[in-house]
Design a protein that fits this description.
Helix content is about 70%, strand content about 0%. It is built from five helices and no strands.
Length: about 220
């Protein structure tokens, strides 16, 4: 009899132990879990914000490569790529860490005030769903393919407009168009008005911004 009581007591204790987490999650804990599931997207957003100015700057620098002697051009490009990577290595972690620090007081506060516990649990189930995880893994590739096709199929219509805009701005600012500048030896760089190869997708973690049209540094995992 005593043994039976002990076994029953142990079984009840085990059931209570497994059931405890389901009843012990507060609203704040549920919000924290939602934020943890969203952290990869927040980090990607911070990376894009950090790298966008460097990408735009490198695009603007492309026309000026024609002023560099052909025998020195490759060295200049490598030096710029190295500096872009140095910037990304410093700026990306800074913005990433700040974004993660700000998330609870901004996104967390909105979640806490706009969702109840049951709704937060539904969000967690949604984000943890294998189907959603697989979909999110496919999104960057789908966006990249769409952006490349969009650029390629509208290049003929958009590039003349960009060149017209560039010529107008250059005239207003007193800057000669690239075609009027004395050509350097070797092939010239593309005009500033040329469309980029595609809308840049968020790069993988650890990679630095590279000058468009060049390989740049290999991605570095941290």
């Amino acid at each position: 009899m005593t043994v039976t009581v002990r076994i029953a007591s142990a079984a009840l204790a085990a059931l209570a132990l497994f059931a405890a987490p389901a009843h012990g999650q507060t609203k704040k804990e549920l919000v924290t879990k939602v934020l943890a599931l969203q952290q990869p997207g927040i980090e990607a957003m911070a990376r894009t914000i950090a790298e966008r100015p460097a990408i735009e700057m490198s695009m603007a620098a492309r026309p000026y490569l024609q002023n560099v002697p052909a025998d020195k051009r490759e060295g200049v490009v490598k030096a710029i790529d190295a500096e872009l990577k140095k910037y990304a290595d410093e700026a990306v972690p800074l913005l990433r860490d700040k974004a993660i620090a700000l998330t609870p007081s901004i996104i967390g506060a909105e979640l806490e005030s706009n969702f109840n516990e049951a709704e937060l649990k539904q969000l967690i189930s949604w984000f943890e769903s294998p189907v959603i995880k697989r979909f999110n893994q496919l999104v960057p590739g789908m966006q990249r393919t769409l952006s490349e096709k969009l650029v390629n199929e509208t290049r003929a219509q958009i590039e003349p407009k960009l060149k017209t805009l560039e010529a107008f701005m250059g005239k207003q600012l007193g800057v000669p168009p690239p075609s009027a500048a004395p050509p350097a030896s070797g092939a010239g760089a593309p005009a500033m008005g040329a469309m980029p190869p595609a809308i840049p997708a968020p790069p993988p973690a650890g990679s630095g911004a590279a000058m468009p049209g060049n390989r740049g540094a290999e991605p570095q995992r941290k």
